[in-house]
Structures are given as structure tokens and as C-alpha cells.
From TrEMBL:
Annotated source species: Nakamurella endophytica
Protein name: Septum formation-related domain-containing protein
């Protein structure tokens, strides 16, 4: 006799098949995934104090110390180490094991021969000073892309483990994150590309900055104050130091590239109303400032920074 088809029975059989497959699969999981490994979770070790050259991110939400001075409140943030190939906030230029070796104003002191301040180690780290004397190699020029040199300290876990060190951290102008390292940038190294400062015109020099990764005709390498009493001899000294700064930053055998580029000092000042004027200031004006620039001689645009270019072809664009 022919048996009738019963959907309910088939569904029950299918269900048993699914259950059986699931049980067999579960039983085979240990073998399929490899041997079980015994053990217990362990807490990651506490990181030691950073070394000079270590790239770091700055954690301003975890202040190590807050000091109140006559100049205001100074907050010293914690830092976390990171591989320099990845985007980071800055680089460690010096480390002191004794926090009392810093005084409040040392964190933001201008570059001097006093190596307790963060300024002097930052200059040495960049290759801007003579190793033996600590004197500036390109005085009075200061590199444009270099920002603050500030104090930092251990994070919460490090402090809980008893660490009390203080470090000086060099940050780029604009406080942006960047990959790479600025170590020795003016003594055989290469300044990170994002630290470069470019513009489309030489006057006013400071009001038309553009990214150096785009079209530009002028790159600014240094800035220096210019007093009202500046004479021709003082300006010549500025030009000599400017050429040295550009040669160190670009590593080009001929920074003028056979006449395709022009290394120049551009001086401007502001009158009492704040209007920019070319040339050194007079006694009635505000203090002026000079820019150490490299300009495309024929106005042909460049497409990236000249920092670290060496003997490579000029990066023309368009």
C-alpha cells in the first residue's frame, strides 16, 4: 500500500537532523580550533619613562599637575608613547627623573642656554644648536613650523606605580598630529612635511599661508624680529644666516637650484593701525619681522615642501 506524505513528520525528522549536526559540530570544535591552552589573564606591564626621541600623544584630559603662577594656570598633561610612523602630537626632547628640577616658567621658557627649560633641549633635538657650546647655528632665525616645547608627565597608571618623571615634548606649530620625526631636522634629518609653511605671495607674507602639499610659489623657513634700528649690516647678517638655515633644512647642494629659486629675506612691519608695510620699521611703527623664504624665481608653482629635498628634482606642479 502506498504511504501518504506527511509534512509534519518530515519537519520533525529535519529538526532531529539539525540537532544532531549541531551536537556533532560542538563536539568537534576543540579539535577543529586547535588544542585548548590553559592559563589566566595578566595585566599589561606599566610603561617606563619615555626616552629622548620617543613620539607621544598628549592626553590633556589627564593632567599630571596644575600650577598657578602670576602668569596664570599651567597644566602639565600626561603623554602616551606611540610608534613614530603613526600620527602623534609631539616628540620627547628631554626627560628628568626629578619633577622639582622644573620651575613653573621652565615649561614655556624661550630657547636659552639654560637646559632646565624645554626650549634649549628642543633646539638641540632639532639640530639648531652647536653640540659643544649650545649656541644657535642660525641666530636670530627661528624655524616657522616649530611650535611649543612644553612639559609633560606620567599617565595615571604610571603615577600609581610611583613614577614621577617630567619630560619636555616638542610640538609643531598649529598643534596638529603628524607622522614621522623631526629629530635632527636641521642637521642631516628631515622636517616632517606637515611642519612646512608655504604661501602664494611674498607680501604680505604672513596673511596668505597655504598647505605646502598644494600649489604655492613661496616657502617660509624662518622668522626673526627686526628692530627699528636695523641697518644694512644687520640685514646682511640676516641674509647669511637665512641661506644657512635653508641649506640645512633642504639639504640641497644649491638652494637656488641654478637660478630657478630665490633665497631671500623679506622684511615687513605694521603701522599703528595694524596695516602691513614692506621694509624695516621706523621708531613710530610696531616692531617688524623678517621671513627667510625660498621663492620660485619665475612664479612657477611648486607642489610640495623643499625640506629634505637633497639632490632630487624640484617638485614643480602645473
Amino acid at each position: 500500500m502506498r504511504r501518504r506524505y506527511c509534512p509534519a513528520v518530515d519537519r520533525r525528522r529535519a529538526g532531529w537532523v539539525v540537532v544532531a549536526v549541531a551536537v556533532l559540530a560542538a563536539a568537534g570544535l576543540p579539535a577543529a580550533g586547535g588544542r585548548w591552552i590553559g592559563g589566566s589573564a595578566a595585566i599589561a606591564p606599566v610603561a617606563p619613562a619615555p626616552a629622548v626621541g620617543q613620539c607621544v600623544t598628549v592626553d590633556r584630559n589627564d593632567p599630571v599637575e596644575i600650577r598657578r603662577t602670576g602668569a596664570g594656570v599651567i597644566q602639565i598633561p600626561a603623554v602616551h608613547p606611540i610608534d613614530c610612523r603613526f600620527a602623534h602630537d609631539g616628540e620627547v626632547t628631554s626627560v628628568l627623573e626629578r619633577p622639582d628640577a622644573f620651575t613653573p616658567l621652565d615649561y614655556f621658557a624661550p630657547p636659552t642656554a639654560d637646559f632646565r627649560s624645554c626650549g634649549a633641549p628642543a633646539q638641540a633635538y632639532l639640530g639648531l644648536t652647536e653640540p659643544s657650546s649650545g649656541r644657535s647655528r642660525f641666530s636670530p632665525w627661528a624655524p616657522v613650523g616649530v611650535g611649543a616645547a612644553q612639559g609633560a608627565g606620567p599617565d595615571a597608571r604610571q603615577r600609581a606605580a610611583g613614577q614621577r618623571w617630567r619630560a619636555c615634548v616638542l610640538l609643531p606649530a598649529g598643534a596638529h598630529r603628524y607622522p614621522g620625526s623631526a629629530a635632527g631636522a636641521f642637521d642631516g634629518g628631515v622636517l616632517p612635511a606637515s611642519w612646512a609653511t608655504c604661501t602664494l605671495q611674498v607680501f604680505p607674507l604672513w596673511r596668505s599661508s597655504v598647505p605646502c602639499s598644494g600649489r604655492h610659489t613661496v616657502e617660509i623657513f624662518g622668522v626673526a624680529p627686526v628692530a627699528a634700528a636695523a641697518d644694512a649690516a644687520a640685514l646682511r647678517r640676516l641674509e647669511t644666516a637665512c641661506r644657512g638655515l635653508v641649506a640645512a633644512a633642504t639639504r640641497m647642494p644649491d638652494p637656488a637650484a641654478g637660478g630657478a629659486l630665490r633665497v631671500a629675506v623679506r622684511v615687513e612691519h605694521y603701522d599703528r593701525s595694524g596695516r602691513p608695510i614692506e621694509g624695516p620699521p621706523t621708531a613710530a611703527d610696531q616692531q617688524g619681522r623678517a621671513g627667510c623664504v625660498v621663492q620660485s624665481a619665475a612664479g612657477r608653482p611648486l607642489g610640495r615642501t623643499l625640506a629634505g629635498l637633497g639632490a632630487a628634482p624640484l617638485p614643480w606642479t602645473g
